[in-house]
Input
Amino acid sequence: MKSRALLLLSLHILSRTTGEPINKKFPENFIFGTATAAYQVEGGWQDDGKGENIWDYFTHTYPDRIANGENGDVACDSYHKYLEDVDLLKNLGANFYRFSFSWARILPTGKADQVNQAGVDYYKNLISALKSNGIEPFVTLYHWDLPKPLEDIGGWLNETLVEYFADYARLSFTLFGDDVKNWMTFNEADQFCQVGYGYGAFPPGIRQDGIDDYLCGHTVLKAHAKAYHIYDEEFRATQNGRVSMVVDTEWYEPASDSDQDKEAADRKLQFTFGWFANAIYHPDGNYPQVMIDRIADRSQKEGFSKSRLPEFTPEEVDYIKGTFDFFSLNTYSTNLAEWSDDYAIGNPGWDADTSVTTYQDGSWNSSASSWLKVVPWGMRKLLNWINENYDHPEIVITENGFSDHGELDDQGRINYYTEYLSAILQAILEDGVNVTGYTAWGLLDNFQWLNGYTEKFGIYQVNFDDPDRPRTPKASTEFLKKVIATKCLVDVCED
Ligand code: BGC
Output
């Protein structure tokens, strides 16, 4: 699209994505679901032969790095209460449930020579309970909880993990692929690569900013592609499912009308989202050119003999390109992006390579998470940007949601869902973006990584003070239930 047309579309979007919810229906085949991830809800951290993973190790070794020294040892106890979870999903009328496998529950050492039958049975039982209630399982193979023995050999910095991940993926397709038709290889690789290996705040806690984060990403992209090709070659013909990789970003809006800020906003999107999305989803494949050029240039000025961003061979670019059957997108909020000259050469890092300052507008509605402001027009713009830049893919929103402090009358969450779903509906009906599914994060209040249990994202409340972890529906449960049943955000929709 020409830039003038884009500008007009932007203004149109900005002016329309406010106010009353849209009174038109979601398309007939649009699906709604909700999500969790293994470490955040399962608990049972050493039950029935499960191996240790990096989050078990990290929370136990460095409790001071997690709010209130909390961990996922018990979490929502979904390892024992999964049938109750399925009842909650049934009550909601969910079309699908996105959850992740704990790699170390299936393969305690991470390697395929030791399979933990109890772990396999757990997921078999969960999947069968979902299917018998008409709920499609959407499975993420990796939502951040690497088996500890694989971190001990270097984690995602060691390319051997491509093979270990491929073995785990193949085993999962073999064991569960008759029932699971929607697979996501990785969840938000930018988060676990950058925060885990660059900033060092997530496990494994390595601080090699601008070096190890890129190495991690390189391995992950190869591992994803290998798993996709395994599915394609060995399983697709008989199982007929779909494979994708979840990429996340916030929308970055230029802080001003200046060309520099526009360029900065685009660059931030490329460094956050394009880092993973480009190689898989873009018709050209590979890393975004702006990443390749900037990192090479800065690396050279810093005295490195080659770029800190590893290179793909042309064969690898081709091997990774197009390894998706739908586009999986996680997104929650929006930031303003400003050009910055503050990042002097000499201190390598992802932020310095990007050289963009971001902040949020003080007038935007807040949540319980510092980074999450309610900016529904950002959702619509992001969907349009993906549609334009990635050749009109089918998009499934695999996470979107709002945090508060756990109140049952969660009007803030209802407001967030109403406004974000309205923005999505406009993207579909008015802009022609092919969004086919929406996943509310999350089903339950759960372990929020470094923030422990201080921020609540669930549509069902969990009482973490009670050893039985009782679940209670919030007002948003009823709200979403009605949306799912009617495919409509208001009392009565136009036909
Ligand atoms: C992650 C979830 C997390 C959510 C809210 C996403 O980045 O995939 O695991 O709970 O954000 O913080």
The longest helix spans residues 212-239. The two ends are 31 Å apart (CA to CA). The domain at 4-486 is CATH 3.20.20.80 (TIM Barrel).
